[in-house]
Amino acid sequence: MKKIILLLSFFIATLTSFSQNILITELNTRNMTGGINVNVKTVSGTGSGYLSNSYTINGNVIDLDVCYWFDNTLPILYFDNDFFIPITTEGNYTINVHIILSSSQVTCDYYANTDNQTTSETYLSATQFESNKIQFLLFPNPTNGKLEYTIKDATINQITVFDHVGSLVKKINTVSKDHIDLSELNEGVYFLKIQTDSGILNDRIIIRK
């Protein structure tokens, strides 16, 4: 009986430990116009949700904190989030990603740090991509949200839109052949990842109403 109780206690403790962890399963970076996009895929052993993120840049070292709330329920959840880090200086950057748990669902209270991973990315200015750039023009910019575009020798398959902190705000899977409607978005700066059959384009727009 003691052995059964001990095994049961160990199982409960192990399950509880996993349920309070959110771990990084994949970490990718991408050079974009104006900065670096960091894609973080995580798995959670507890009922949880994305709460907030913050970052600091010290020289060529970027620290990104990604915060999730949790409530101690048990379904396993998977998250896939993009975070945009604005960069003004070209160079090689080390990016440290810290996964933070919060017991509050309102503001991140840094209840626990459950995982850390490090990657790197070389940031290049837009002018250095000119030789590889698909002939693409997006206008007007600034815009009220209704954009027109021209593109040569390529077809757009998908457009994803990120806000100024790198959070995904819109994904367009069926793209019109000459215009993009983002009029439902609030005023601000947005970053577009444009996937074509000839490569990926990155652009920045300003919405003013």
From TrEMBL:
Keyword Signal in annotation: yes
Where does the Secretion system C-terminal sorting domain lie? 138-207
A Pfam match: Por_Secre_tail
* Alphabetical keyword list: Signal
Signal peptide: which range, if any? Answer: 1-19
InterPro entries under this entry?
Secre_tail
**Keyword Signal on this protein?**
yes
**Per its record, how is this protein called by name?**
T9SS type A sorting domain-containing protein
